[in-house]
Amino acid sequence: NILNTSNYGVCLFSLPVLQDFMKQNGINGNKLIPKLQRNRKLFIESQKAGIWVPIVGIDSVAYDVRLEGQDEPFGKEWDEKISYEGFNLEIQDTICMADIGLLHPFEVADFSGDEKNYETRDGHTIYQQFQRKVPSGKYVLSIKGYSRKDSKGYGESGCKAEFGYWFSLKKVDVFEGYQNPREDELFDFNIGN
């Protein structure tokens, strides 16, 4: 579950939900991120409707990403650094955890399998996205961030993570309110500080 980002952010979404949002708003794949950056109203709408959750302003390194109910919790060799909750996320069958750079430009082919990876010249496999099966529905996402107590030897190859995120999903009938993860005064996701 080592996710690498070279774009200072990761994001969570469900591909069919994101595609429906793009279609309804006339957004083509080359314009998704720029349009959401320029149009605050549309970005807030995407948060209220649970289209995606961007986790930005983080170091471009490898992260151990884990989903409650599908992965082992972080153990005693990790320190919890952050804990935030209340992010809306609608899911249709799968959740995608990805390097935010895969959304600019957005190519459906990047999400056609359970994961997207490539191999470096020195033989390390770098993962840019993972997908997991999750029952369809509306969820409230909680995010915890961790760092290793002893980070020696981690983070150097891109295959071992010094930092990690724990994602928890609580199913709800309707979204009541929303959190904007881009409110820097409320949320600092950069656990590498």
Main sheet: strand order: 1-4-10-9-5
Return Rg in Å. 16 Å
Number of helices: 3
Instruction: Describe the sheet with the most strands.
Output: 5 strands, mixed
Question: What's the total count of β strands?
Answer: 10
Label the structural class: mainly beta
Order of helices and strands: EEHHHEEEEEEEE
How does this model look, in words?
This protein has 193 residues and is mainly beta. The chain has helices at 15-24, 32-38, 40-48, and strands at 2-4, 9-13, 52-56, 62-67, 78-91, 94-99, 115-119, 125-133, 137-148, 163-172. A 5-stranded mixed beta sheet has the order 1-4-10-9-5, with helices on one face. A hairpin with a 5-residue loop joins β7 (115-119) and β8 (125-133). The longest helix has 10 residues, at 15-24. The two termini are 22 Å apart.
